# Entry
Amino acid sequence: MNICIVGVGAIGGFLGARLATKQNVNVNALARGKSLEALNKNGWLLEQNGVRIQRPCVAVESASELGVQDIIVIALKTPALAQVLPTLAPLINENTIIISAMNGIPWWFFKDLEAQTHRPFQSVNPEGSNSQAITYENIIGLVVHASATRTEPGLIQHKAGNKLVIGEPDGGKSARVQMLTNLLTDVGFDCHYSENIRSAIWYKLWGNMTMNPVSAITGATVDHILQDPLVRKYCSAVMSEAAVLGEKIGCHIAATPESRHKETEKLGAFKTSMLQDVENESAIELDSILGIIYELTQRLEIESPNIESLFGLTRLFATTKGLYGKAQK
# Structure
């Protein structure tokens, strides 16, 4: 089996290194710069539970150097999608399974709504370019509930969490998702087969859509965010508006904002991915985490003042820092 990881940051590297422990599986990578160098020199490197895992890796800069893959894992940051997805054609045939493993809402999430309104969502699928590059039928959804960091190019350190949720974009059961569930379980993940992956994606976003942008603006870890009663109340208000949106798109959330906060508090003092990006002066993934939610409120004509204010403030902050839009570094 040939697997290619596209996006070898913390999560891509974590998935790649674990998958590479499976016998008779070649886990390749599409990379560039120092990551490309490190992967070809040292292979996959993962520090987990006090143990260092090292496995071979063939890393290339161009998809044409690898040829067709059985599985592709896309773990890119959303701002890179429009540039990278069209270059992946040499890796793909009609049988290739393409797993999206990214923060926020993936480009394929609102396929039906886009078709009904004849308009792509610009925040995650600009001009429909991402859905044109990747055939919907090849896609499998994946939600990652884990924390990892890339301490240096090619070296990933697992922090916490080991849970994956996987499923067909349209829901239901399939042989290919069962195969992937077995594969991911075999290499040490706590992998769950979901018959409604869209709801699983929406539920994870429900927490991230507040913690990520608030941490980016304030520089605070999530424990401090939730310890401030006014900020906690504001986050709850944003989430309540998002829960209404979820009902409209068939992603019901049974939990309350407060119960979700208590889940988050168990993680302790940690930096969100968006805060890490701000500290590293990297483009933030605002569009897939919050921009798409604002765009959805406009499409459905639902008043959501708290979502609007959070998006506006974060967008202004990131634009001023050169981390969003045309000014991205």
Summary: The mean pLDDT is 94. The first helix runs from residue 10 to 19. Strands lie at 2-6, 26-30, 44-48, 51-55, 59-60, 71-74, 97-100, 139-152, 155-167, 190-193. The two ends are 37 Å apart (CA to CA).
